[in-house]
Amino acid sequence: MTTTSINWDELxxxxxxxxxxxxxxxxxxxxxxHPRQRRSGxxxxxxxxxxxxxxxxEAIVPDGVMLTTPEDGGRLMNAAHRLRAIVKTQRPQVLLVxxxxxxxxxxxxxxxxxxxxxxxxxxxxxxNQQQAxxxxxxxxxxxxxxxxxxxxSYQLREVIEYAEAHADEIAxxxxxxxxxxxxxxxxxxxxAAILVLARRARVSDETLxxxxxxxxxxANIPLGDPRLVLRSIYPRRPRQLDDWYYxxxxxxxxxxxxxxxxxxxxxxAWPRVGESRLDFQRRLTAAKNRRAYSALSPKKRLNPKSTxxxxxxxxxxxxxxxxxxxxxxx
Length: 330
Hints:
By secondary structure, this protein is mainly alpha-helical. The chain has 3 domains: about 10-110, Conserved hypothetical protein from pyrococcus furiosus pfu- 392566-001, ParB domain (Alpha-Beta Complex), CATH 3.90.1530; about 115-255, no CATH class; about 280-330, no CATH class. The protein is built from 15 helices and 3 strands. The protein has helices at about 10-15, 25-30, 40-55, 80-90, 105-110, 125-140, 155-165, 165-185, 190-200, 205-215, 225-235, 240-255, 275-295, 300, 310-320, and strands spanning about 15-20, 65-70, 95-100. Helix 4 links the parallel strand 2 and strand 3 (about 95-100). Helix 6 (about 125-140) packs across helix 8 (about 165-185) and helix 8 (about 165-185) packs parallel to helix 10. The radius of gyration is 27 Å and the shape is elongated. About 30% of the residues are buried.
């Protein structure tokens, strides 16, 4: 093992001391957090405060209060729960304090799975906003992959940055989707992402308001209306592909004034927001052909008598792309 890449001057500058942290000091540190400092969980603050009130708080805790270097502003990098508990109880506590920590270390210490993007996203509904951000990121960069937990697995920093950059779109969409969830049990984060995509596809505000209002109340909706069909499906056991298909297919049909049957979910393709039913069927047919062709043995792929041949596969792709029929090529 080599240590040639370690900056020893930087390392030796870091100090570790046990100090009595007063209420005033705790408030000062909390007022100067690292820009990516997560929001405190009220339940955890209460747990720590109860321990402090009962005199059971242990001073010898190796997880110290970490502060950045003066050059980085001396910002608080962690331990907000402990410090808020001190403020809550108005009782000083002895804590390990670690000073002169480079600010970049925050990205290293803040990677455990117990911390989620919702703790960083501003707003009262951070959980749904971060879910909406993940769906939007998947739609923009991984749409070819079937929607799943793996396909929507992004680095925490990526989710935070995306949510912050698109907060003006995500926040109001989450609010509208939250109301729908209360009335129809439709997944809020996913629905919020779809509403954002619908606006990007230039679906009018009037249409989207009619969509969300109808889903929320279920009042005055005629039989066969896509909103009524969608409401009849939920609540249900969540599955990313199913939920995406149901909501998008219903919304697309509502926008175009068509009816919709939400029965068997196609496994080889999934609709885009704002996509016509005909265009989706073309993509679905192409996806089925690709799957059928790839399942053939190399010998059968070259056999003109095969039900799906290389030529037929290519021709189908061309027809799906251009919208032409076989007669156009004769």
